[in-house]
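User: For my dataset I need records formatted as: sequence, then structure tokens, nothing else. Please produce one.
Assistant:
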Amino acid sequence: MLIACLMCLCGFIINEDDSHFFMSREPEQMTIEGLNAFVDQYAGTKVTHLFLCPNAMKASYRSSVWDAIWDMTPSQVEPKNDPVATRWMSNAKLLDERGLDPYAVWIARCREKGISPWLSMRMNDVHNVDDVTSYIHSKFWIDHPEYWRVPGGAGWTDRAFDYGIPEVREHHMKFIRELLERYDPDGLELDWMRFGYHFKPGHEAEGRAILTQFMRDVRALTREWSAKRGHTIQLGARVPTTPESSYGLGMDAQAWAREGLIDMLVPTPFWATTDFDIPVEQWRKDLAETKVVLAPGAEILLRAYPGAEATGNDIMSTRGFAASCLERGADQIYTFNYMDPAPMTGGPEAYRMLLEQGLDLGVVTSQPRRYPVTYRDTVAPGASNGAQLPADARNGAEFKIHIGPAPKKGEARFVAGLAAKDGVAEGKFEATINGVACESVADLENPGQFPGAARAIQFNCPITAIKDGYNTAIIRQKSARPDQQIVWAELRMKS
């Protein structure tokens, strides 16, 4: 039996969520052939790992310890006006009625195709908690509002489970035991970023010891089942993008690594935007003298600042993310919500190109790439989200942008999106990169590709001025008032 190797110093990971397959296929595809075809699309590509998520609050299979997605309590309302949700429930149930367990089939098929299969368990999923009658909620959550982080609270973070409560931890541990008993993966990931808040506000510090003990208990289970299966079952975790916020929200990933409790760590945003400034080198230092694989995670969405409209990553921005992270010390690149057939800007062609070219450093730095300015969507109390936008152009707006290795030749361009304000079309601007003047060139067509932008101005930057790592771009309005506002900024590279 082939067991794919986790510890190679390269890797491209795709996380398949708990609903996408069932929502995106027809009932006729709920067959062994349909299940195998899902895996087969990644065979022979650069994808090295498939992380298969079997749950939100409910399981997407007939669990013996949790509700299945098609189970309903008397207080819940069937999603009759939501055909996508109905398809999830009915297709998952249809597979069960046909005696097909999708996760068992996918794990086996991955091994046949040389892809490493993992299970990725969501530890605190609170989709749709504003509607307590939603089909997606478990009976355990409905019956125990006293187990919420803020009982009686209205926000989604309020209604997440409080892991300070022993019954909450045992509820989730039961599912972990079942996953390891029922399936034979290469690894199990605990996804602490679905949704990232696990303790009553103000109790995160005491929560660190609680989650570390929880991780010890899970590690003991993976070791037990490794012995039974005859191969190592790895353990991974998804946490916030910075060590500060991970620690401050109760996820002491450094301690987990030092104790040998994890084999892979995925610093990642929650959902709102990809973070293009993950401090991988800081994580690398914190994980020194451990064998933990570091796999920074990219989300499918981009937002320039909190509250901004979202757009999607394209292949150029995904390459930029990988180039920065790999140069800073990442071992592998992890993608979330990059699911078939066309999650990316650019559609199926771009997605297929991503799969076939992969995200190794030599590949991404030889291709056109872009580095948007974004922010951190999940931070600990008191921590900065790193937002640099929106910015006033009048006095000179400064942006720090990490690009990974600097190109030795080629082109570099700085792009800024301007908000719709009086005088935006006539505004004149100047820019520098690392203190060197850039050349103003014709506006970029289709400024609407940048949310909130009515105009996209461009500057060619001298390639000799570009540095490894961080580059500082400054843009200043030269023309008279009215003052203009920058709502988007990015560097583009072509080697």
